[in-house]
Amino acid sequence: MKTIVIKCGGSVLDELSPAFFDALHSLKNDGYKPVIVHGGGPAINAMLDLYKIDSKFHNGLRVTCEKTMEVVEMVLSGKTNRQLVSLLAEGGLDAIGLNGSDGGCLVADFINKEELGFVGTVTMVNKELINKLIESELIPVITPIGASEDGNRLNINADYAAAAVAKALGAERCLFVTNVDGILVEGELIEETSSSEIQEYIASGHIYGGMIPKVESAISVLDKGINRVMIVSGKKAFYKNREWAGTAITSKERVK
Ligand SMILES: Nc1ncnc2c1ncn2[C@@H]1O[C@H](COP(=O)(O)OP(=O)(O)O)[C@@H](O)[C@H]1O
Ligand SMILES: CC(=O)N[C@@H](CCC(=O)OP(=O)(O)O)C(=O)O
Fold first, then answer.
1. How remote is the CA of residue 180 from the centroid of ligand 1, in Å?
2. Global pTM?
3. Which ligand number lies closest to the CA of residue 176?
4. Whole-complex ipTM
5. What is the pLDDT along the chain (256 residues), one digit of tens a residue?
6. Domains (ranges, CATH) in the chain?
7. What is the end-to-end Cα distance of the chain in Å, rounded?
8. Ligand 2: which residues within 6 Å by Cβ?
9. φ and ψ at 60, to 5 degrees?
10. Cα of 10 to ligand 2 centre, how many Å?
11. Are 139 and 36 in contact (CB under 8 A)?
């Protein structure tokens, strides 16, 4: 099965263009089976503000106390997942929302309970469940919340969740849809790059903030045999007539 895992970032959920939905139709017409993992960081921040709860991050991960976890779940499962599934339906795409914590979809473990609270890393993915939905011609839209073996629900960075799903499914491709055209260096789009170049961009400060978990996830996926990962904009036609727009991260090291 030609599965493509698509991470749809919270930064662009309110700005997805008609071209995004056209690209999904094109992928489907070309035989790809999409699986979406969505984020929702900005919407969580807004709701925490409303509840007067401070947003704190440690190494790019949200420090998640019990109260924050309630808000995270309310926003991701109750708002952003619903929003994306209905946008897909409006765009003529049959999708089904799936809480990562339901049915063992994403099994997770605490990363460091003292430091981060209810933040998890994915330890297992119920690929049978996801594959059943794909075989029913539905696009699973997965919320990045995992359930631990001892019954806790854990907040997972959506880039890492998408990478875990792509690896578990043995996806053909993995795509990070965000609010910029791809990796930019001094304002220029980098059309193709490799793991080692990315390490240099991070060291020189050209890649920072929210782009770091994306490129780290991309590299972890490349290590598992998926040989091309794309970072693309949800505001543009990222796939048309079998042509991609954005940054391709490949496992091949380029000769400089
Ligand atoms: N080299 C880079 N090229 C493009 N964007 C970058 C780069 N380094 C950091 N960024 C930042 O990463 C952001 C995307 O990450 P993030 O805000 O977490 O989005 P998402 O919600 O889609 O995961 C961009 O809007 C930009 O501010
Ligand atoms: C642990 C952790 O940081 N979880 C993220 C989950 C959402 C997410 O990753 O959303 P984006 O893709 O929009 O950034 C958070 O709480 O913001």
1. 7
2. 0.96
3. 1
4. 0.98
5. 799 999 999 999 999 999 999 999 999 999 999 999 999 999 999 999 999 999 999 988 999 999 999 999 999 999 999 999 999 999 999 999 999 999 999 999 999 999 999 999 999 999 999 999 999 999 999 999 999 999 999 999 999 999 999 999 999 999 999 999 999 999 999 999 999 999 999 999 999 999 999 999 999 999 787 888 999 999 999 999 999 999 999 986 544 4
6. 2-250 (3.40.1160.10)
7. 35
8. 9-11, 39-41, 44, 61-62, 72, 119, 144, 155-158
9. 80, 0
10. 8
11. yes
Our CA angle for 24, 7, 102, nearest 5°, is 105
The phi and psi torsions of 32 (rounded to 5 degrees) equal: -80, 145
Q: Please identify every residue annotated as catalytic.
A: 7, 10, 41, 159, 214
Go through the chain and tell me how many residues it has.
Answer: 256
Environment class of 256 (CB within 10 Å of its CB; exposed 0-12, middle 13-18, buried 19+): exposed
* Residue with the two structure tokens 């914590």: 101
CA 110–ligand 2 middle distance (angstroms): 15
